[in-house]
Amino acid sequence: MADSRWTGGVGARKRRLPGRCRPEVGSVSSPAALKSQNTLGAVDVSTMTRELFMIDKKPVHPRHASGPASGPARATASAGILALGAIFLLSGSLGMPAAARADPGLAQRIDAGIAPYFRPDAPGATVLVARDGKTVFRKAYGRADLETGRALEPGTVLRIGSLTKQFTAAAILLLAEQGRLSLDDDFRKFLPHYRDPGGTITLEHLLTHTSGIPSYTDLPGYIDGMARDMTVAQMIASFQDAPRLFEPGTRFAYSNSGYFLLGAVIEKVSGRSYADFVAQNIFAPLDMRCSAYEGHARHKVAQARGYRAVAGKFGPHAPLSMTQPYAAGSLVSCVDDLARWDAAITAGRLLKPASWARAFTPHKPGGGAPDGHGHGHGHGYGWAMGALKGSPTIGHGGGINGFSSYAMRLPQEQVYVAVLLNSESGVADPALIAHTAAGIAIGKPLGGAGPAAPAPLAPAVFDAYVGKYALAPGFVIEILRDGGRYLAKTNDEEPVEMFPRSDTLFYSTTVEAQLRFERGADGAAGRLILMQGGREMPGNRLE
């Protein structure tokens, strides 16, 4: 993870998982509706909101850049259960191969849309866009190694963080198809030494983050020991006595612990290590030569170094033993392999269609409340369901020490986008890059991250907003002014600069969120509205 965020990371950000995962966002109609980088989920509204407003990066925009980066710059199925999975499978090559649509200018348009987010002398990204099963865009930006000046190449290998979870989910489904386990099995059937107060916790609860088991990356003291090599048993012992957050199946709380336990189940049932199982049963059959559990590469590959931004400069990421992310976030890959993975899913390979459909079925415990990541459409097995300007999406993201990622598919348009970054902060949000590229590929561009220049605003107007606003118990957004800079920060995170669209509406060029202030008759702001992930969350001003 990076810092305290694995999707939050460590340190200046939040505690992110082995890439605190960055799952799919909900309905999106503009960059400002996207989720912030490196967000791991949480259970209650307070954590949910913290994850939605991750402000561990400096805003970056061509006209007002700051920091190291420049350029414009995370129970029951709902109605229509299986519908999204069915759309995905039927729109692919399951008997309906589609010829790639000719569009000679598409690659140039995608490049023009995302290139301004990266600098040639800073950490960057590898990006791939496929349409109708054909690669239509494949490019790298920035450097793989700042010390040597080695450039990133499209085939460079990077950590993928919580994109790992979809491979862990597929491994569980493979074992289920072989009759070696059932998704309705209590996971303690395979891990009987796990101490727990009782109550059934099924494998499906673990897959859908509805187990109530808290994420070990959120537990006190985790960050201090994240560089230590741990056995699977030692890691499980580190979180098994943590109090249950809620009764299984009643709520959603993004949990790296759940996917760690799934990895242990895979090892117990298969008799192989997690690294060997995914290599032999997923990567090798699909010719994914770049992909492996980090440290267990099967082929010689060029891997990027990872970075984080601290005090306006890029430096090494915080140390992390990859024994700790394990089945929740320890895989490495390249965009070419991720495209092979998506093509295999679209073609119905590896698993039966019913298994893929179940993986893409959105789960909304507690009557369908949003899941804490802004996924208003629900979370499946290692994927989350959302929408991009009305088009259904299936995606997820990851944030881990030194790296961040986002991958998404748009089943109706047969478009897939993979974005891998070799920095956990200080660069553009990979979700923003992915949604920008996808919007161009489907003919629904998002538009710019903000206006050509911020709207004029007198500092005295902003001063009326300065103060603290409580969005939920334990979560406060503080509004500050530093000369002519307008800032927002949460808890102990670094401030992020906000730019005015009007006297009451502000946006960030890196964190995908907007803030709107509501003023009373005396002109002072009494309430703040956080707008992100297609949702609005009010926060009352604290006296």
Tell me what the structure shows:
The chain is an alpha+beta fold. It has 2 domains: 109-442, 3-Layer(aba) Sandwich (Beta-lactamase), CATH 3.40.710; 459-541, Lipocalin (Beta Barrel), CATH 2.40.128. Helix content is 22%, strand content 20%. It is built from 13 helices and 20 strands. The chain has helices at residues 45-52, 83-91, 106-114, 164-177, 203-207, 232-239, 256-270, 274-283, 335-346, 353-359, 365-368, 430-441, 459-463, and strands at 27-28, 125-131, 134-141, 158-159, 292-293, 307-310, 313-316, 331-333, 384-388, 391-400, 403-410, 415-421, 467-472, 475-482, 485-490, 496-500, 505-507, 514-519, 525-532, 535-541. The strands form 4 sheets. An 8-stranded antiparallel barrel has the order 13-14-15-16-17-18-19-20. Strands 1-9-10-11-12-2-3 form a 7-stranded mixed sheet, sandwiched between helices. A 3-stranded antiparallel sheet has the order 4-8-5. A hairpin with a 2-residue loop joins strand 14 (475-482) and strand 15 (485-490). One of its GO terms (molecular function) is hydrolase activity. Residues 1-28 are annotated as: Disordered. It comes from Massilia glaciei.
